[in-house]
Structure formats: C-alpha cells, structure tokens
Design brief:
Elements: E1 2-13, E2 16-27, E3 31-35, H1 42-49, E4 57-62, E5 65-66, E6 78-81, H2 93-104, H3 108-121, H4 136-147, E7 154-158, H5 166-179, E8 184-189, H6 192-198, E9 201-206, E10 209-215, H7 216-223, E11 226-231, H8 235-245, E12 251-257, E13 260-265, H9 268-281, E14 288-292, H10 296-304
Parallel strand pairs: 3-8, 3-9, 6-7, 7-8
Antiparallel strand pairs: 1-2, 1-4, 4-5, 9-10, 11-13, 11-14, 12-13
Helix pairs in contact: 2-3, 4-5, 7-10
Length: 312
C-alpha cells in the first residue's frame, strides 16, 4: 500500500521557486530517508504534506486521500515531530502525554495504557523528573511518543537527530526502527550516516528538485562510484602512481590525499587487476589495495555534483 504519494509538487514564494516537479511515493512499513542540504526544500515539502502550506501546483495523497490546504483531514493519519519540539517544562513526561492524549480525544479507557506503552517504547517509562531538566535527546524521544499517540499510519520526523551527541542519535534511531513495525516513517535529515543505518528507501532533494529516489541498496550499487583505494608508504610514491594513471583510459577519476589515492573505475574486477599490474610493473611499493564499498556519501556527492571526501 502507498502510504504517501507526492505528484508534480511545485511551490513558489513570490518570484522564488523552492520546489519544482517533486514526485515520490512511500510504501507501508518503510523508513524513508528524505535527504538534502540545509535549504534544499525538505521542511517546505513536509509542511505541504501536513497541509500547512498551499502548493503552487501538484498533488499529495495520504493513504489515498488528497491533502487539502486549510482542510487537513488527512492529518488524523499523520504523527509529526518538528525539529525542535516544545513542551510544558514543569510537567513530567507521563503528565505531558496524559494531557496530550486527553486533548487529542483518545477514549479515556485506553489513555493510561497507551501512554505507558509509548513511554516504554521511547525509554522514558521510569523517568519522573520534570521535562525542563531533560537533555535534547530525551525531549526528541518524548516528542516521538507524543506524535504516536493516535497510532498514525505515517510518522514525519524533521531532523530528529540534528544537534544530538552520538548516544542521543543512536537512541532516536533505535526508537525509529521499533516504530517501523507499526508505522511508516518519513525521516528528513542531512546526516547521511543515520540514513545508512536505518532507511529502506531514500529521496535526495537538491535546490528544490528531486535528483534521485528509490531503494537505498539498489541505488548505491547502481549509481555510487566504483572505487579502489590505494595506500603508499609516502606521498612521493602516491604522486608517482597518480602521474602513472593520468593517461589511462580505464580510469574515470583520481582523488589524492597525502599517501592515499581513491581511483574511480568502470569495472572493479577487470580494471582493478589492470591497475595493480601497472603498479607492480613500475616497481612502486604499495601498502594497501582495497575495493571501497559504495557509500551513501559517495552517492549523495555524485548526484549533487560535489567531490566526495577520501575514506579514512
């Protein structure tokens, strides 16, 4: 089932076009990574999905129902976590969820059990101190619990791991993996390593245009550069090999960082053997010859037209 369908979405603010012909779909029980640099248009897209902005053109459907600006009936199917959620600082997490459940209109006989279930899901069931003393990661986890109160079909998270330390980020990612069992997740971020850990499908937004979308593993194999990493004793040997390979037709691109070369080829096996043969025939000592597994970073940099960093 298609939980979210975005068709030909376009958004202008005055003379400025911030989204142009954006189309993608999200199936059920999927964590969908919505990627892009700051200012790419991710938050604008999410506000359009929530019916908080009016699209210049295009259509959005949630579980087959159209999203209508100013008449957001589809929001009963959506849970939303903004990038900086706000709370009543004087409340405990349980008090806050109980209040939200009442305001949301949950039946009274299910409120306590639902709040207990969600606090357990996000690891806050035994936390009784006031929210004002929470870390940012704890607030994000409470925000996820609040967004899930109504058992939404779609959970939208806007940069949920930004500004968190590694422990806080892992806690949020673990929660989202658990949520996937019941709810489809749209996970907006610019932190590529987080996407690589938990997402099934991705879409990359660049300057308001969708440049790539699909299954993450398939896209990495199809589009990420085929690279071989070479490491040498010193920069002089690396420079020598760099010069040796400049006129090789099999070599697509070479990136050098001190004693290390990243060589992009068409055919990892055939071109790799040829590359190694050239180095051995030139009697240049080599410390390491390694095929670089396709990464989301290399894919992302490729499609937005930037040079990737050499792996460390």
């Amino acid at each position: 089932m298609r939980v979210l369908e975005v068709k030909g979405l376009r958004k202008q603010f005055g003379d400025q076009t911030v989204l142009e012909d954006v189309s993608f779909t999200i199936p059920s029980q999927c964590i969908f990574g919505f990627l892009g640099q700051n200012g790419a248009g991710k938050t604008t897209t999410m506000k359009l999905i929530l019916g908080l902005l009016k699209a210049t053109s295009g259509e959005i459907f949630v579980c087959g129902e159209p999203v209508v600006y100013g008449n957001t009936k589809t929001n009963r199917l959506i849970g939303y976590l903004p990038d900086v959620p706000e709370f009543y600082a004087y409340m405990t997490p349980r008090e806050y969820l109980l209040l939200c459940a009442e305001v949301t209109g949950l039946p009274k006989h299910v409120i306590k059990d639902r709040c207990d279930e969600l606090l357990d899901l996000v690891g806050l069931s035994n936390v009784n101190r006031r929210i004002g003393g929470f870390s940012r990661g704890m607030k994000q986890r409470l925000g996820i619990a609040q967004a899930l109160l109504n058992n939404p079909t779609l959970l939208i998270c806007d940069e949920p791991t930004s500004a968190l330390d590694p422990v806080g980020r892992k806690e949020i990612l673990d929660v989202l993996l658990k949520v996937k069992e019941q709810t489809t997740v749209l996970f907006s971020t610019h932190i590529l390593s987080d996407v690589e850990q938990i997402c099934d499908q991705i879409a990359i937004l660049h300057e308001g245009k969708l440049v790539l979308t699909g299954d993450l593993l398939t896209l990495k194999k199809q589009f990420a550069p085929r690279q071989i990493q070479l490491e040498f004793k010193d920069a002089a040997h690396a420079n020598e090999v760099h010069s040796l390979l400049l006129n090789e037709a099999r070599i697509q691109k070479i990136n050098q960082q001190a004693t290390m070369l990243n060589v992009e080829v068409n055919d990892l096996e055939g071109d790799g053997q040829h590359l190694l043969k050239l180095i051995l025939e030139a009697r240049i000592p080599i410390y390491q010859f390694k095929v670089v597994e396709p990464s989301l970073e290399s894919l992302f940099m490729e499609v937005i037209g930037c040079e990737p960093m050499l792996p460390l």
